[in-house]
Amino acid sequence: MAAPGENLRINADRLWDSIMEMAKIGPGVAGGNNRQTLTDEDSEGRALFKEWCEEAGLEMGLDQMGNMFARREGTDPDALPVYVGSHLDTQPTGGKYDGVLGVLGGLELIRTLNDLGIKTRHPIVITNWTNEEGTRFAPAMLASGVFAGVHDLEWAYDRTDAKGKRFGDELERIGWKGNEPVGQRKMKAMFELHIEQGPILEDEGIDIGVVTHGQGLKWLQVTLTGKESHTGSTPMPKRRNAGLGMARVTELVHEVAMDYQPHAVGAIGHVEVYPNSRNIIPGRTVFTIDIRSPDKKVLDTMDARIREGISTIAEAMDISYEVEQVGHFDPVTFDEGCVKTIREAAERLGYSHRDIVSGAGHDACWINRVAPTAMVMCPCVDGLSHNEAEEISKEWAAAGANVLFHAVVETAEIVE
Ligand code: HGY
Ligand code: MN
Ligand code: MN
Questions:
Q1: Are 159 and 167 in contact (CB under 8 A)?
Q2: Out of 256, 323, 365, 415, which residue is the most buried by the measure of CB atoms under 10 Å away?
Q3: pLDDT at residue 7 in the model
Q4: What residues are in contact with ligand 1 under a 6 Å CB criterion?
């Protein structure tokens, strides 16, 4: 396939302006975003994306999980489309770029092709995957997981948020539930642009991350049940303190992850304490353990050690426990051909680049099961993400979008 000329570049200002426009929807309290999946803000962001896609002459498809597919025709309508995309939903205290850069980077490459009147043989489809974050409805990458055949549609519809609202009902309520069956679309390839969400690229002064692998992840939801009682009058030896149990499990998760440095990670981000009263010993705690490693054996060993540790802690404290796995994917190896296309695009465009393993999970990790897939990363300031202070430079955004543009257009084959 002929590679595009190195002077073919996207319009960095237009991309940046679109990102800032999208950031106005579902603003956070500290300059970032709170546009959680299936909220009214998510719906507003979807509507803006749809409007922009229609302005760019794209035809919008919508499947039963609310995944959006904006299609630019190729000269050969039977040729398998090249997909490009990410997600528009954010964390509750999220940044402006996590996910959004990948969706709007896809839109920008289409806008540039339109400006230049460039045709491709294969159609190109921009995708917004529903509920990548998994923060309101676990697990993460829910809709791309249904698309890849990892999760069943009805199981996904039955996922509930902290207020007991069902995913399927909320998708219906916001009016973004399509009729298209999920997962029937065939792809020539899928590319995702994403901020690194870690410090490596910035620390090394490198423009582009060529993502060769994604680390594996497990989310274990733990419920500890002790006994509510008075914090003042219950003698210490008689307490069955589920809050203390959670603290010990938190320490255990950290220690186990530290045993497998430098790559393994572990933390507890979601915590519910009942009844959460200042003068009642917690009778029940519900919390989610997030452990990750690029090495499947290490991930499974951490899982086993943590489960064993929970049982030891609970027995010693006379509290009962339940552990439910609510999220999981094994380490991912992206498609060598797509990875090479990205690496060569960075080279051709004169960007510094390095191979990198993704610390975060992405929709590309699931789509890699059903189509040749790879990712491009750009640096982010202090490697910070899942924080409203998440920041990137316009230059970094443009570099990532240019590499994405070249990789997608080369794969979609320019028609002279
Ligand atoms: O959890 C993750 O890695 C992703 O940000 N959803
Ligand atoms: Mn993301
Ligand atoms: Mn995220």
A1: yes
A2: 365
A3: 84
A4: 132-134, 140, 360-361
